[in-house]
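debug: dumping io for the single-chain case to check the tokenizer round-trip. Nothing else runs in this session.
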Amino acid sequence: MKAPDWSDLAYFSTVARTGSLNRAAEETGVSAATLSRRMKAFEASLGRRLFLHGAEGYALTSEGRDLLKRTAQMEDTARQISQWRDAAQGPTCVRISAGTWTALDLAQRLSEFWTPDAIWLPEFMYCDLNLDIARREVDIGIRNARPDQPWVARQQIGHVDYAVYAAHGDVEGWIGPSWDTPLTPSIRWVQEQHGAGIVTKANSPHLACALAQAGIGRVVLPMFMGERMPGLIQLGDPIEDLRSEQWLVSHHEGRNEPPVRAALDAIAGYLARRGEAR
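debug: decoded output
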């Protein structure tokens, strides 16, 4: 019997992971119609039913789930080959996701934990929502709570404290979030504790901070950023309800790749030093 086509295995893995022809088409660059035709032919060549076709997308049969476990190893090998290829062309890009202020802090203090001759090249992805490490949308994530997924490697770095900041002590109003702003714990706290005192709103933490610097209202900031924000002073003690853990997370297999390991060690060292300095 002829061995399965490598392309069909790769297409199957992508469709199975995404559960959607359209999402698989975006990832592979192959049209949904072509993927549909290839998957039907692939099932016929194997003599096995891999998908349950329905309104909810391409759900896997038990045989499909079994094959996906095997093709996951193939995808990991392909990624390692890509990294091996890229290593000859220069540093390997490591994608790092973090919330607004942590991402800004890492970017501003990059020279304290990275140099251009490192084996990894940082790619920062600011996002207040967790990107998918399982699908390797990012290589490293910095989270404010302990992740519980079994495939995640985790390391607690320390804690982050938050406080109220304003241009001066006479400012009484608050900067609130626009309707489309992700509801982070600090934003929820402002709404719940001072919703009636909101005088203006912004859909970006950077805009909210600029409004506070202009004397329009108060904002809540992580202290590692607020204490060095020009034109703002801290009003009161740290907010006990907002104290959060800080976790450095990565894929349990991906963490052992040399560029990712180097980035994890460098970032962990910087965040630990930052915490000790406060």
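debug: round-trip ok. The longest helix spans residues 62-87.
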